[in-house]
C-alpha cells in the first residue's frame, strides 16, 4: 500500500539565508500515529506548515494520497486537518457555528449529521449551543479537533496538543487520539512530552537542526538504542570499584551501597553471568538486584546530543 503522505528531498531556506529544512525525506503510512520529536527550532513547525500549505518550500515535493500539495493544492488541503495550540475564533461564537464555518471554508456541502457525529464522538454535542467563552480548557482542546475534522480529512496534524494543560486533560487528549486512529485517521503529532510519543505513537521521527536524523518503529527503536542497567544492592558498601572489575565499567550508587552495570539490550552477550561470577570471586556480596531500562526520553536526548 502506498504511503498516504510522502515528503521527498524537501528544503526550506528563508530570505535571511537560514536553512530551516535540509533534504527531508519521510513516508507516513495510512492509519498510523507518527510522533515527530525535536528540540525548539529543529524544524518541526516549518515542516508541518509546508505540508499544510501555509509556508512554501524552496525545494523538493510533498504528496498527500498521491496528490502534489502545489499542483493539487485544493485537493490536498481538503485532505489535511491541522489542530493548532490555540483557539482563535470569536469568544461569543457557538460551538456549532464554529465547526459549521470550518466545514464551509473547504467548500464542503452542508452535512449536519456528520458534524453531529463529530461533536458526539468528542463529547461536545451537549455544548453545541454554548458560546466558546463558556467552555472549559478540555472542551476547547476537543473543539480544536472537531474544527479540524469538520471537513473530513484523512490526515490530522496535532501541533503540541497538550502543551500547557494539566495531567487530566493530557490523558483525555491521549484517549481522543487513540479514538481517531480507530476511525482510520492518520495522526501526526509534534510534542515536547516524550511520554506522549512513548505511549501513543507507532513510529518515531527525530528532527534536529533541520534534518531528519532517525525514523523508527517505537518498539524497535527502544530495543536497538535502549540500555539496561543492572543494579545490585550491596551487603557491605564500597568506597570504590575494585580494579579487577574495571572491564565492566561499573559505577557506584547510593553512597557506595549499590553497584550499577550498564549494558546494551540488543547485545547477544550481556556479560551478566561473568560479572556475577567475578563479583563472587572478588568477595562482593549483594542482597538484592533489579534492572531498569532506558526511556524514550533518554534515547531522544542521546540522539539530539549526538
List the SSEs and their pairings.
Blueprint: E1 5-13, E2 19-28, E3 33-37, H1 44-51, E4 59-64, E5 67-68, H2 73-78, E6 80-83, H3 95-105, H4 112-121, H5 137-149, E7 155-159, H6 167-182, E8 186-190, H7 194-200, E9 203-208, E10 211-217, H8 218-225, E11 227-234, E12 251-253, E13 258-264, H9 272-281, E14 286-293, H10 296-304
Helix pairs in contact: 3-5, 5-6
List keywords for this structure.
nucleotide-binding, 10 helices, ABC-2 type transport system ATP-binding protein, ATP binding, 306 residues, 28% strand, Alpha-Beta Plaits, 4-stranded antiparallel beta sheet, 32% helix, 6-stranded mixed beta sheet, ABC_transporter-like_CS
Can you walk me through this structure?
- The chain is α/β, with parallel strands linked by helices and 306 residues long.
- It folds into two domains: 218 residues, P-loop containing nucleotide triphosphate hydrolases (Rossmann fold), CATH 3.40.50.300; 79 residues, Alpha-Beta Plaits.
- The protein is built from ten helices and 14 strands.
- The strands form three sheets. The chain has a six-stranded mixed sheet with strand order 6-7-8-3-9-10, sandwiched between helices. Strands 2-1-4-5 form a four-stranded antiparallel sheet.
- Strand 12 and strand 13 form a beta hairpin.
- Helix 3 packs parallel to helix 5 and helix 5 runs parallel beside helix 6.
- The mean pLDDT is 85.
- InterPro entries: AAA+_ATPase, ABC_transporter-like_ATP-bd, ABC_transporter-like_CS, ABC_transporter_ATP-binding, P-loop_NTPase.
- This is ABC-2 type transport system ATP-binding protein.
- Pfam families: ABC_tran.
Amino acid at each position: 500500500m502506498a504511503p498516504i503522505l510522502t515528503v521527498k528531498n524537501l528544503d526550506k531556506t528563508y530570505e535571511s539565508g537560514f536553512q530551516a529544512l535540509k533534504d527531508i525525506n519521510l513516508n507516513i503510512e495510512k492509519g498510523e500515529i507518527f510522533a515527530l520529536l525535536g528540540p525548539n527550532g529543529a524544524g518541526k513547525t516549518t515542516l508541518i506548515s509546508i505540508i499544510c500549505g501555509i509556508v512554501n518550500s524552496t525545494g523538493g515535493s510533498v504528496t498527500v494520497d498521491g496528490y502534489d500539495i502545489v499542483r493539487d493544492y485544493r485537493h490536498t488541503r481538503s485532505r489535511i486537518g491541522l489542530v493548532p495550540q490555540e483557539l482563535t475564533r470569536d469568544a461569543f461564537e457557538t460551538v456549532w457555528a464554529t465547526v459549521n464555518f470550518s466545514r464551509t471554508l473547504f467548500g464542503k456541502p452542508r452535512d449536519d449529521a456528520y458534524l453531529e457525529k463529530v461533536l458526539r464522538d468528542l463529547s461536545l454535542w451537549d455544548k453545541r449551543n454554548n458560546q466558546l467563552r463558556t467552555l472549559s480548557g478540555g472542551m476547547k482542546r476537543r473543539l480544536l479537533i472537531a474544527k479540524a475534522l469538520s471537513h473530513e480529512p484523512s490526515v490530522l496534524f496535532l501541533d503540541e496538543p497538550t502543551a500547557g494543560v494539566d495531567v487530566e486533560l493530557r490523558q483525555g487528549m491521549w484517549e481522543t487520539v487513540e479514538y481517531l486512529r480507530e476511525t482510520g485517521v492518520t495522526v501526526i503529532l509534534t510534542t515536547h512530552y516524550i511520554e506522549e510519543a512513548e505511549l501513543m505513537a507507532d513510529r518515531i521521527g527525530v528532527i534536529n537542526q533541520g534534518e531528519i536524523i532517525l525514523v523508527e518503529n517505537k518498539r524497535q527503536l527502544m530495543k536497538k538504542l535502549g540500555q539496561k542497567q543492572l543494579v545490585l544492592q550491596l551487603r557491605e558498601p564500597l568506597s570504590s570499584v575494585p580494579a579487577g572489575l574495571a572491564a565492566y565499567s561499573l559505577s557506584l550508587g547510593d553512597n557506595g551501597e549499590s553497584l550499577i552495570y550498564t549494558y546494551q539490550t540488543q547485545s547477544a552477550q550481556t556479560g551478566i553471568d561473568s560479572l556475577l561470577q567475578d563479583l563472587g570471586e572478588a568477595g562482593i556480596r549483594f542482597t538484592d538486584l533489579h534492572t531498569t531500562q532506558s526511556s524514550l526520553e533518554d534515547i531522544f536526548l542521546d540522539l539530539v546530543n549526538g
